[in-house]
Amino acid sequence: MRRFILTRLVQSLVALAILSVVVFALARATGDPLHLILPMVATEEDYANARRYLGLDRPLHLQYVKFVTNAVTGDFGISLRARRPVTDLIKERLPNSLKLAAFSMAVSMLLAFPLGVMAAVRKDTRTDRTAQVIAALGQSLPTFWVGIVLIEVVAGRLQWLPAGGTGSLAHYILPGFTLGWFVVAGMMRLLRSGMLDVLDAEYVKMARVKGVAERWVIWQHALKNALIPVVTFAGIYFAILVTTAIVVETVFAWPGIGRLAYEAITSRDFPVIQAVVLLTAAIVATVNLLVDCLYAFIDPRIRYAS
Amino acid sequence: MKPALRFAASLLVVSLLVAGPAWGQARPSGELTIALSSFSTEILDPVLGGHIVKFYLSLIFDYLVGVTPDGQPSKDNGVASRWEASPDHKRWTFHLRKGIRFHNGDALTADDVKFSLLRAMGKRSTTGYAGPLRALVQDIETPAPDRVVIVTKEPTLIIPPYLSRVLSTEGMILSKKYLEAKGDDHFARAPIGSGPYRFVEQVTGSHVKLEAVEGHWRLGTPKFKTVTFRLIPEETTRVAILRRGEADIIEISRDRVKEVERGGFPIFMRKDDSLLQMWWVQPWENTPVKDRRVREALNISIDRKELAATIFGGMADPGAIPFGLSWAFPDVNFKMTADVAYPYDPARAKKLLAEAGYGGGFPIEFYAFQLPGLPEGKAMAEAVAGYWQKIGVQPKLVPVDYGAFRKKWLDQSIPGAVGYYNMANRDWIGTYALIEKMAYTPSKTTTTKDPEIDGMVREVLRQTDREKINTLMRNIFLRLRSEHLGGPLVYLHTPYAASKKITKWNPGSVMYDLNIDELVTAR
Q1: Angle at B89 between CA B84 and CA B95, to 5 degrees
Q2: CB-based contact (8 Å) between B297 and chain A?
């Protein structure tokens, strides 16, 4: 088991190292940030000064070495756009993304559980079909569109909830739902298929034969076992929510790392792009590692096969 | 009356007498919230943050030279209450207003002004006009705490406008003592100035919050206790927060103006906010646009009135002079007569192309991108391409982001291709600086190579006679127009929607400045 974890850890680190080269190169391939920072009337001297001050005049390989050696110590440099340490910006923004993702996740679970269970128990009924439609919509409607419609109708016309920004619990509802709907759909389908497998299992039939109440059979015997893949995937879903909230955070003016990434890309803020990409990759890698370990712990065939 | 009671009563009377004068003056109250689609760099430092952050910085800081909302230098609302030049125009003396204090209580003196200007001209500065100032200023003297003398290498007229609120951020006055004690990084997180609002909080990507300074020399006691600038990139969200009463002013695109107006929200317009200008990327030597007739044909085949009415929803006027910012026209007494307006004449355009040997048209790359404040960029590019197709030209639209285009433009790797920009309107000297960048051969960003214009551009800065400068500027405008050295499209007006509590506001026309002063002035 130890060897399995070590192998996975090394693989994750190699992936991050490769990613660091890719993101470093790609960020620079998009163009010169000074074209966006300096005004149209800036002189050649202004360009040269800014390039020197921001360390962009040094050869690329030296810039990369500096970036990597500093990143290892947690120093991602200074944001070109905000002129503040990148780590400060991430510290300011990451908690917002985590809080929104946690809220989304909680709402998703609360909706997905009853829907998934009901769909399985009432297979091929109207309830099942309704749940399937909800799932299909959740996975097919673009997040951007869902967000805009909710803002226009719920916040703008009906004025029930705030349209954007952070603050009270009410500010979480629209972005949380928009972000979480995709997860509701995924979780619900996962739970439905898990439940259908379990409801067909011998021990469930046995419980019924023994006269255990149907409600108890479903929520106690069946659900517990159907939950294993759902809980495992919940970790991955959470990582996805944190790292892919770029659209939701932009639409709802939510100052999280998704927005930070968007702002950094549009302004070619290399240090921030590099840090956010590596951070999100590290989050995904860590969650994947944990999930792998969990699987391996549950199913020994996996660890031996690797 | 018992002694204790008598003492308490006396205390009450004294307190009331002391507090008395304040009763007559309204205290700032409530909140003003302005939601915008972009904050530019979000750096709270006028020197390191660049010029576009001016809209909130001009509440935190005072300028050496103030301006009126229509852009005239003002002795009433700048740190300098008056200024004069030596007869040779090489020594500019600024007399500072007494009693101005920074938000930490320190007095603003000549040392602060000198420090601020040197910092603005320093190597790290990213302000718009640092370069020209650096080249021009020889020394800054402080003969008295309330007097600053700027010595220039050459005779000049540009010092007051360059250090005024009409242009960029070079003229903002910072505290020498505070910056030297705390350093740049601390200053960027907690700036202090001497303006009518002090900095309270910044959350990058979210908002900047400011709080009123009572009894401020420039605006008196401001009306609103706090002013918050919120960053909301998505327009639907901005409109929704306006409807919910969470914002008082929002930036709005031209195509949603009518809908929001129908909802009862007043619309305020920044007239002539910018000139939407096309140009042909250098070098042109081996491209069809080297021919004057082709440039004229490309210009007269565009129906600018239709463009203004459709793509820009009537919130624009036809443009006429390449790189001619309309704001500068009154400054230099340039009259916009009917004959300088571009006619819409596709038949003549075809004839001109045939005369130039391009009767069968020619391919031309048109880089189509969105710009801040110009969501209509791509639609405009498509419309212009459509006009050109009608006269046989074969435009190829290249969808790209502006940064990528700018790199190709500056690298001169796309000869003769079309680029465009919404150039913020500014006064004559700002316009001159822009022409010097965009239409002066030695400049790296030049889009023209015209010896006649080059000669006039060089001559302007040497002149200290305003009449001669005016003549030169007028001639530059006419030459740009007669040689068709670019494609001016429209003068854009920028709409803002407001909550019903905003009944009066002139957003002004000063570059990158929304004239929030008028909204917060209690007077």
Answers
A1: 20
A2: no
Whether chain B has a CB inside 8 Å of the CB on A50: the answer is yes
**A31, A38, A253: residue with CB nearest B233:** A253
Q: What is the ipTM of this complex?
A: 0.81
Question: Quick one: DSSP state of residue B220?
Answer: B
Q: Would you mind telling me the total number of residues written for chain A in this entry?
A: 306
How far apart (Å, rounded) are the C-alpha atoms in residues B520 and B229?
13
Cβ–Cβ contact B43 with A under 8 A: yes
| pLDDT per position as a tens digit, B200-227 | 999 888 899 999 999 999 999 999 999 9
* A53, A84, A252 ranked by CB distance to B124: nearest: A53
| Contact predicate B389/B440, CB 8 Å | no
Give the distance from residue B386's alpha carbon to the nearest chain A alpha carbon, in angstroms: 29
Q: Is residue B211 classed exposed, middle or buried when 0-12, 13-18 and 19+ CB atoms within 10 A define those classes?
A: middle
Pair B393, B298: CB distance under 8 Å: yes
Residue spans of beta strands (DSSP E) within A76-175:
none
CA distance A277 to chain B (A): 18
Surface of B (380-409) touching A: CB under 8 A:
401-404, 406-407
- Tell me the backbone φ, ψ of residue A281, rounded to 5 degrees: -65, -40
Residue A2, pLDDT score: 78
Q: How far off is chain A from B451, nearest CA to CA, in Å?
A: 21
Whole-number mean pLDDT of chain B?
90
Residues A49-60 pLDDT 10s: 888 878 888 888
Q: How far, CA to CA in Å, does A266 sit from each of A33, A248, A261, A270?
A: 9, 17, 9, 10
* C-alpha R_g of chain B: 26
The region that residue A31 occupies, defined by phi over 0 for left and psi between -120 and 50 for alpha, beta otherwise, is left
DSSP B340: G
Q: In the predicted model, what is the mean pLDDT of residues B79-92?
A: 95
Alpha carbon of B206: minimum distance to chain A alpha carbons (Å): 6
pLDDT per residue as tens digits for the range B145-193? 999 999 999 898 889 989 999 888 999 999 999 999 999 888 988 999 9
Give the residue among B4, B122, B413 at the shortest CA–CA distance from A53. B122
Q: Distance between CA B34 and CA B208 in Å, rounded?
A: 10
Q: Which of residues 184-213 of B touch A (CB under 8 A)?
A: 185, 188-189, 203-207
Enter the pTM of the model. 0.85
Say which range, B22-31, B137-146, B453-462, has the weakest mean pLDDT: B22-31
C-alpha to C-alpha distance for B121 and B97, rounded to whole angstroms: 23
pLDDT band, residue B21 (cuts 50/70/90): very low
Q: Under an 8 A CB cutoff, do B206 and A166 touch?
A: yes
**Cross-chain residue pair B131–A42, CB shorter than 8 Å:** yes
**Residue A110 to chain B, least CA–CA distance (Å):** 27
Crossing angle of helices A86-121 and A170-199, in 10° steps, is 40
Interface of A with B in 224-243 (CB under 8 A): none
